[in-house]
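Consider the following assembly input.
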Amino acid sequence: MLSLKQLRYLDAIARHGHFGKAATHCAVSQPALSMQIQELEQELGVQLIERRRQGAQLTAAGREVARRAQRILNEVRDIGDFARQSAAPLTAPVRLGVIPTVAPYVLPALLPLVRADYPLLVLQVRETHTQQLLAELIDGTLDLLLLALPVEHPEIETQSLIEDRFLLAMPPGRKLRGRVRATPELFEHDRLLLLEEGHCLREQALAVCNLRQIEGVDTFGASSLSTIVQMVANGMGMTLLPEISIGLEARGGRVGIGRFADPEPARTLGLAWRATSPRKEDFAALGGLIAAAVRKCQKPAADIVADQRARERRT
Amino acid sequence: MLSLKQLRYLDAIARHGHFGKAATHCAVSQPALSMQIQELEQELGVQLIERRRQGAQLTAAGREVARRAQRILNEVRDIGDFARQSAAPLTAPVRLGVIPTVAPYVLPALLPLVRADYPLLVLQVRETHTQQLLAELIDGTLDLLLLALPVEHPEIETQSLIEDRFLLAMPPGRKLRGRVRATPELFEHDRLLLLEEGHCLREQALAVCNLRQIEGVDTFGASSLSTIVQMVANGMGMTLLPEISIGLEARGGRVGIGRFADPEPARTLGLAWRATSPRKEDFAALGGLIAAAVRKCQKPAADIVADQRARERRT
DNA sequence: AAACGGCGATAAGAAATTCTGATCGATCGA
DNA sequence: TCGATCGATCAGAATTTCTTATCGCCGTTT
């Protein structure tokens, strides 16, 4: 009779491509793992693994079985998560994925809130691009994502939390006559500096400015917003900053900040989880905290803009 | 560590509501099952079952865990099915669900074809209404459905096979001037006789005749087409028959058959299976045979219509 | 060419798990 | 109160699974 152990071992082999390493990872001896795999192959009547000199290679059937096994193992883990949640909400670790244009700003505000409200909760945070996050969410490596919506995927459910406006960051001292209008002309003198490919903020900024063409856009591709802000501060161009980043990135008047004309462009920040996840209540509770943290991050933006306008009026 | 055995036992209890019966069903002793369940409850840290005088009752958490367990067990079975398919196509038994307005006509034609082409294949056929079939498909009791499309469900995939036209069945001797037009007036003298609620053919027939109201429609509700044909033969009204049924139901001139004006109304017969099913290739192969069987069933219809027209011209 | 090293299979005995059969205790109905 | 039913408990048996030791294969190294 098929057992979970066999599926666990197969999954380990699929991941490591090596009987010995897989066995170590499963905390059993290599023969134990080998025998279970043989048993599995015999029960299924199909060869799953090609034993080669340089390790183990899955056959076509093996890959398909491993894919299904992984799915099953995820669902088994979900049962455990569900039980833990219903026994004691928000105590099991949450593996949270966050996009790079959110993480450095929101996490410092979020973690104290979490510690205060759910002292037992452990947040394991991973920061990478949307596409990578989604892949890891689906394969069960992550439990929850904090990113920019919308996200369309049949196996994923989302909940939007809060809007995060875009502001224009200019070299310091640049004058503004009221709100900025987002047009390509804006970037005739100053190049638009953007993050490297893969960041959703890059695409959003291009959309906001009605730029399809990469003209006047620096494809140099920085990998963090603070790098870009450095460049802006040195007069190398302009960029769009999300409101949550202003407090950190525009402090001390390093760059000038301008608001866009209504309707102000914005991104929607929200959560995403596997549709089958048993911890939706946990996630909803966390969502409340995250929204609060985001609001905290956005607060300095208003001050900075007001402050700057006051200074301009004085000159 | 969670095991499949525990999930199997829990599933059995969920089905039988009784430790002893569940144990019998799993072919183990009652203590063995009890102990595994206790183990499971301890691992999950949640009580899953209320032990009551009159048997076992799942707690709320128990129901949720059982639901997930059932899903997992289905997917495990799918792995076995997949392996068997890739080892030898179309040899593992197929549990096929068929709607009542198809089964008695198509199966007699289908089974010989199956025996000829796939002598090792065992078809386990179940006949009931669409809704019931869909429920059993999803919970894994059935593998494949033969029914009238469309079927909309996120977990189900379908493939249409063939069109099956509707014909008008009248008391014998009734004259027709060419093709019939499907209007409510058609049923001013003769009532429209239909199957009982739940048959998709009932809804389709009402739609074909542009009848929303149940006026002039006999809600008496027969449970089989041949009953209705009996009634039609005795002058109690008219009905719509699918083309595949004509050979059996209208043989010997028991009832008059009329074709509808173009565009002739028809239903689409097709297959449905779980989107996760590993046996799609099997099903596609079976689909070919089923389409052939349906075509065979439809053949007599043309002859009977032609024959009848010839007789009318003679009188 | 011979020795080596990495890899998975095999073998035998030990350890752990799981099962059975007998029995118990509780509860409900007669 | 008795009897019946149901699930829990217990002790020993049966089965499964694991570990350690070792083998055989085949590239690589010396």
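Residues 90-162+268-300 of chain B form a domain with the D-Maltodextrin-Binding Protein; domain 2 fold (CATH 3.40.190.10). Ask yourself how this observation constrains the way the partners meet.
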